[in-house]
Amino acid sequence: MPYGDMKKPLLQCSRDPEPLVSDSVGGPAVGILGGGDFARSLAARLTGSGRAVLVGSRDPKRCAALFPPAAEVTTQEDAATRSSLLFVALFPEHYSTLAGLRGALEGKVLVDVSNAAELNRGGPSNAEQLASLFPDSHVVKGFNVISAWALLAGPRDGSRQIPICSDSSQAKRTVMELSRSLGFVPVDVGALSEARAVEDGPLRLFPSWGGPLRCLLGLFLLFYVYNFVRTVLLPYLVKEENLFYRLPVEMVNATLPAVALEMLALVYLPGLLAATLQLRRGTKYSRFPDWLDRWLCLRKQLGLLSFLCASLHAIYSLCLPMRRSARYHLLNAAFKQVKDGIENSWVEEEVWRMELYLSFGILALGVLSLLAVTSLPSVGNSLNWREFSFVQSRLGYTALTIATLHTLTFGWDRAFDPRSYQFYLPPSFVLELALPCAVLLGRLGLALPCVARRLARIRRGWDSGCQVRFGPAGEEPGGDAPEDISDV
Fold first, then answer.
1. Quick one: 12 exposed, middle or buried, by C-beta within 10 A (0-12, 13-18, 19+)?
2. From residue 20, how far is each of 16, 46, 174, 317, 449 by CA, in Å?
3. CA atoms of 397 and 269, how far apart (whole Å)
4. What pairs with residue 56 in β-bridges?
5. What is the distance between the alpha carbons of residues 376 and 166, in angstroms, rounded to a whole number?
6. d(Cα 292, Cα 270) in Å, to the nearest integer?
7. At 149, is the pLDDT very low, low, confident or very high (cuts 50, 70, 90)?
8. How far apart are CA 300 and CA 212, in angstroms?
9. CA dihedral in degrees (474, 478, 481, 486; nearest 10)?
């Protein structure tokens, strides 16, 4: 991005009553110790926001051409002396080279932007090491989760949140105000002892997706192995029928809808459990168990993975007629029909079953697509709370209901046909229906007027242990109509 595109601040920040660093252009400059990519991007963003920037380098003449013209490139000693707030954009192993600046940095705010070299490394964090080298300075951990590209391109790309921690509340407020003026959202995570977790954050690969991905893999292996044993392995061992050609496509396509339906049911099951706990305890002011709390926080990931499996199932289903084996089966069926002298093989019941089966599948995938789109931050932020709750809860249960009907029409009456239980094993669709049907029945139970009324009162603050009555004066107790519980 050209430097000219950043001549105005992205956001106007409010001034602290007694800031350690003045926010005006004419006040003390913001210093940067370092000459790498991050330092250059930070200098560009700061100068574009109207701040005077001093870049301290060991070789100012060589680095001057790499920084924006509005930034003054000088020596480290000069930058440390003239700045009240300095970003330490150096690798941790080079912190010791700043030891000669201890006097010049006394009382100054030092922002450590480094990250850990590896996860779960013992010993103090980089910010704590910097604080031990400069005990008379105010060390703040922050800006380490923002890449050089995000600084240069602006906070519209990627996450805008910046976790910040420090033992100095005043220094922390100063850095938070600075980050707001740059268009980012600061998040106070506590004292400097939290710096280890902040530094490890960028090294974690999709930390919130580990549990949902393991759940997806476990369900896929479970249903895939079950279908393999039932439809491929046992026929080969008992009847010597070679059906191993089904493994790459047909077996995967039979497994994906089962996984998608189970994952979608797992999205709404924790809400039912939470509502049940609130009803049992008679209050909303009691914490959920840790496992349930974590489960509730992973519903978005579970839903997106369900949508992924459903989409793959649709693609695999469209590719089924393209297989050579499908063509051979079609030719064999046609030849057998001619040989048996059957002129019309139309079966009205099977025609209706397949029409309903495909229609339910298309509708379920369409509603799931809407849920997936609204889960994107750019779309979800444009909805108010009521709209978002309607889409994610009402339409979510609608998607679960339609997907369950899709599976039911696939099975039709085969669940009651003894011939479907080959080798005394039930078809996979019988197994996959148990959890979603239980979730839907539980949701219907919470919709009963007596249950819905009590749950709504609890969520509005009523406590069974306190005799507190909510409602307009003169209204009879228990006369409330059932209220909306769609957010369970």
1. exposed
2. 9, 17, 7, 64, 58
3. 11
4. 33, 74
5. 32
6. 7
7. confident
8. 10
9. 130
Joined together, the tokens standing for residue 309 give 């499996």
* Prediction pTM value: 0.75
Contacts of 427 (CB under 8 A, 6+ apart): 411, 414, 415, 420, 421
- Tell me the percentage of the chain whose pLDDT exceeds 90: 68
Backbone torsion region of residue 206, taken as left when φ is above 0, otherwise alpha when ψ lies between -120 and 50, otherwise beta: left
Residue 24's pLDDT is what? Answer: 40
Q: What does the alpha-carbon distance between residue 223 and residue 432 come to, in Å, rounded to a whole number?
A: 9
- Span 246-303, pLDDT tens digits: 999 999 999 999 999 999 999 999 999 999 999 999 998 889 999 999 999 999 999 9
Integer CA distances (angstroms), 455 to 299, 452, 458, 472, in order: 21, 5, 5, 19
Q: How far apart are CA 266 and CA 271, in angstroms?
A: 9
| Whether 115 contacts 144, CB under 8 Å | yes
pLDDT of residue 178: 93
One-letter amino acid at 8 equals K
Distance, CA of 224 to CA of 254 (rounded, Å): 8
Instruction: Tell me the C-alpha distance between 83 and 42, whole Å.
Output: 15
Q: Across residues 368-392, what is the average pLDDT?
A: 88
Distance, CA of 349 to CA of 196 (rounded, Å): 64
Q: Tokens standing for 444?
A: 């219907």
Q: What is the largest CA-CA distance in the chain?
A: 102
Closest CA to 172 of 149, 200, 191, 193: 191
pLDDT: which is higher, 244 or 378: 244
Percent above pLDDT 70 for the chain: 88
Q: Is the pLDDT of residue 201 over 90?
A: no
- Give the separation between CA 96 and CA 48, rounded to whole angstroms: 31
Distances (CA, A) of 488 to 273, 305, 403, 458: 9, 20, 19, 13
358-362, 375-379, 405-409: segment of lowest average pLDDT: 375-379
What does the alpha-carbon distance between residue 187 and residue 175 come to, in Å, rounded to a whole number?
Answer: 11
- Residue with the bigger pLDDT between 443 and 161: it is 443
| Residues in Cβ contact with 179 at an 8 Å cutoff, skipping those fewer than 6 apart | 142, 143, 162, 164, 185, 186
Q: Are 159 and 192 in contact (CB under 8 A)?
A: no
User: DSSP of 85-119, one letter per residue?
Assistant: EEEE-S-GGGGGGGGGGTTTTTT-EEEE----SST
Q: CA–CA separation, 152 vs 118, rounded Å? A: 26
Which tokens hold the place of 422?
A: 């080959």
